[in-house]
Amino acid sequence: MDQQEDASRRTFLRRALALGAIGAGGGTLLSACAGGESGEGSGTGESVGDPGESADGPGESTGGDGGGGVTCDTSGLTPEEKQQRQRFNYVAQSNKPNQYCNNCQFWKPDQVEGKCGGCQLFPGPVNPQGWCNSWVQGGGSS
To answer: For residue 39, is it within any domain?
Structure first.
């Protein structure tokens, strides 16, 4: 009976150690996903250096030119809604060739061509020349 108890105890300890290692490793991986490109910051995308950055978020000033001559007013968004946008590292002016919000699968065009549209992933107005880290080639205009 002692051998059976020892085997059971060993199995338990192995599983506990494995779960602990997975938990520690998983937490490290998740925290790495939240950081910016330089590994510092809060993962808001503000380290991209967009010229239209403001307190509202990168490239989302309420009066300035955020991207491509289009200004999207985000003053009506709640802090939670702005944080949701920042989780996707949204910027109003893309620095990636041929990757713009208006040719993304998640783009929701506005009534007026060339003005702000929307996104299926987060709330508020979206600049057609913007970009986020969930960009997927879609059938929109470019």
So the answer is: no
Q: Return d(Cα 50, Cα 32) in angstroms, integer.
A: 22
- Residue 25: CB atoms within 10 A of its CB come to 10
E-assigned strand segments in 1-138? 107-108, 118-119
Structure tokens at 142: 């470019």
**Residue type at position 29:** L
Write out pLDDT tens, residues 65-107.
456 678 888 888 999 999 999 999 999 999 999 999 999 999 9
Task: State how far the alpha carbon of 11 is from the alpha carbons of 15, 20, 23, in Å.
Answer: 6, 14, 18
Give the total number of structural domains in the chain.
2
Looking at the domain assignment, is residue 6 inside a domain?
A: yes
- Token representation of residue 130: 């913007």
Give dist(CA 92, CA 38) in Å, integer.
20
Residue labelled with tokens 């057609």: 128
- Tell me the per-residue pLDDT of 18-54, one tens digit each, with 9 for 90 and over: 776 676 665 555 555 544 444 333 333 333 333 333 3
